[in-house]
Write a structure and sequence with these properties.
Chain A has 413 residues and is an alpha+beta fold. Helices cover 29% and strands 24% of the residues of chain A. The first copy, chain A, contains eleven helices and 15 strands. The relative contact order of chain A is 0.14. At the A-B interface, helix 2, helix 8, helix 9, strand 13 and helix 11 of A face helix 2, helix 8, helix 9, strand 13 and helix 11 of B.
């Protein structure tokens, strides 16, 4: 947790309503930090379904491997998240740590270990001493409550400067259901997945396979469209839990993600994901500006995504934004290196709606003073029109500042 | 040109011998900088052959397009390089600028425009006023001399902190031939090509197609194995010129790159390229440490290259090095995101010969004090043993410092 909150943090935090069937608790287990909470326990009522998407890293953390295996059971009774130690690249010890954590949690929750889901975030390569959860989880299980959302979001933070929560209410059939989410991110945020850890909860009755399809569809233009530094964590995890409690109010049971009754829910669910993903970008390590990269006129959406990511991950573009310099030459560079179809002489580029380049050269109406003023804004949109087709996409990122280097050059000490 | 020379600069600059058939001159044409030279003219005797490799950017600069087209003529009589303006993304004006520059140079050199080669480096997206070469190139053509190598290397610098030259002498048949090279780099250095501008000269008699094959083979493990920030310039250019003057001493005329008589020459030629490429890494913007990433035990050499590049381009690895932190967890992260075959539990990682991780966990003999001491060195080797096969490769990079951000956040102002 940094002492200075990102200037891009949302101005207000939403009131997070309770979700029937979910209770939360946090504690200080002393994993790494002093004077703050570092463990979250969420308990779920019987019948809660679960879905998950994870890092594409070839070297995933032990908790990621644990969750992937346990998803087959389709149900969850508890989630244990710790900050301070990622339990990644910890060899056999890492596997033993997840097993021990799950044992302790299962005893505390009164369920099978296969219904326990785990996530860890923090330093990689250090053994996680799971015995620290002994007693802590048992105590927490007696204290959990339905209104601890903000505390929960705080307990999972690492270099984040503010807790990230989002909520929505939406009709499902005649019932009103709730969707709550939390995330932690900050660095090492790149597809796929785009955040280190995020958890979404709902009381809608959705079968596990439908929830999985929903989640997979939802991340494509949200978490997977956010990048901070192009680095991909070994621990990226997004889990969704559906307690089904709203069935008591008449919410229909959903077994297919493409069920027409789910339409409004899908929209709200994706908005919660998008909200959380944007907060992750707003809390990029050292970030002073939120950057939206829009690419249109590409040959396909996939091609637009690749060009947008090339721009969003370019250190030279990101340092220029940090310097409030509308350096569209570097944007051209990043378009050029993306390896996608591009015609230099058809490119147009705008910063915050001001066109600076068109058809392969500086825009005739270019006014440096006007653009420089626009670059002072704390939200910068870079729009690139490729002039080739109808492919369009958008990604979020942040600028690259000296603070990023300071944070990451001194993280372990 | 920065006022502070990189601490990684070579301790001495080699004496650069003359190469028969090559004469050089530099001048201050006032392209952008004040109080320094910014244009280089090299004149070649008749019969000089030429070869080139260029950026893979889909949005190359006008000079890159000019050179690509003129390579078909196989001969060169002059090279004109300017710093301060890259003449990239300058639309029709850019093309007109190259044509005008070539016209002025051809008149000065007394040759055809098709024998003029051009390169420009500096700001992208600003029109290059080629009329500034009027008179300047003509005067230079009367002043060129065979001993101006260091001045030449200085005239092509942008954010470089020291001029980069290298030289070798080697037997070709019974004659001794010379290879001289110069380069400028510093930022936006990533394959392929790996340097913004480099020029290599020899008096060996080598036909253009053989020289082209030689150059293409030589860059793979030299310039294309260097990365500073993963960004790829629109202007990257490496040109080789062979005057053939050593034929007068009995050097055999070479028409095929795989001619056995060329063996020693190829080795020396590649060493000059490797030397220049390393100097580019040593002068990475803001660099305080030279980083060699060695990946061995990968499934193939190509796979090892991809993993090495993933490590070398990772902002989190590079900031850790800047912070003198042997953060091998981030190296694991970078291995994992490379998308190449990897088995976490077979990975071993060393920093400067000290093994910190083996078989998927912290090395039992790990001694933080010992490793921390080693990280103070200004040259850091990260070695990753994948444990899968015999693929091995090596790339060079540098650390990512606050100075990089300062240089690039303030470049245009």
């Amino acid at each position: 947790m940094s002492s200075t909150v990102s200037p891009l943090a949302p101005k207000s935090v939403p009131d997070m309503p309770a979700i029937r069937g979910v209770r939360l608790g946090t504690a200080a287990a002393g994993i790494r930090y002093k004077g703050r909470t570092d463990v979250l326990l969420a308990l779920f009522d019987k019948g809660t379904t679960v879905a998950g998407v994870f890092t594409t890293s070839k070297c995933p953390s032990a908790p990621v491997e644990w969750c992937r295996a346990k998803l087959k059971g389709k149900t969850a009774r508890a989630l244990v998240v710790n900050s301070g130690n990622a339990n990644a690249f910890t060899g056999k010890t890492g596997k033993q740590s997840t097993a021990l954590t799950a044992d302790i949690a299962a005893k505390a929750a009164g369920c099978k270990t296969g219904e326990i889901f785990l996530a860890s975030t923090g330093v990689i390569g250090e053994p996680l001493d799971a015995t620290k959860f002994n007693g802590v989880l048992e105590t927490l299980a007696g204290e959990v409550a339905p209104d601890r959302w903000l505390e929960a979001a705080k307990a999972i933070m690492t270099t984040d400067t503010f807790p990230k929560v989002a909520t929505a209410k939406v009709k499902l059939g005649k019932a009103t259901v709730t969707i709550n989410g939390m995330a932690k991110g900050a660095g090492m945020i790149a597809p796929d997945m785009a955040t280190m850890l995020s958890f979404v909860f709902t009381d809608a009755p959705i079968a596990a396979p439908a929830l999985q399809a929903l989640l997979k569809g939802g991340v494509a233009d949200t978490f997977n469209a956010v990048t901070i530094d192009g680095d991909t964590s070994t621990s990226d995890t997004l889990l969704a839990f559906a307690t089904g409690a709203a069935a008591a109010d008449g919410a229909p049971k959903i077994t297919r993600a493409n069920d027409p009754k789910l339409k409004a829910f899908v929209k709200a669910f994706n908005e919660v994901l998008a909200n959380l993903a944007e907060q992750v970008a707003r809390d990029g390590e050292g970030a002073r500006k939120l950057v939206e990269v829009v690419v249109e006129g590409a040959t396909t959406k996939a091609s637009a995504r690749k060009v947008a990511m090339s721009i969003a991950n370019s250190p030279l573009v990101k340092t220029a934004i940090a310097g409030e310099d509308a350096n569209w030459g570097r944007v051209v560079m990043a378009v050029g290196k993306a390896g996608q179809p591009a015609n230099r002489d058809k490119l147009s580029i705008s910063f915050n709606g001001i066109r600076v380049a068109s058809k392969g050269a500086r825009d005739p109406s270019y006014n440096e003073a006007e653009v420089s003023e626009a670059m002072k804004n704390d939200t910068i949109q870079i729009k690139v029109a490729m002039g080739l087709g109808k492919g369009r996409d958008r990604v979020l990122t942040c600028d690259l500042t000296k603070e990023y280097v300071a944070i990451n050059g001194d993280y372990r000490s």
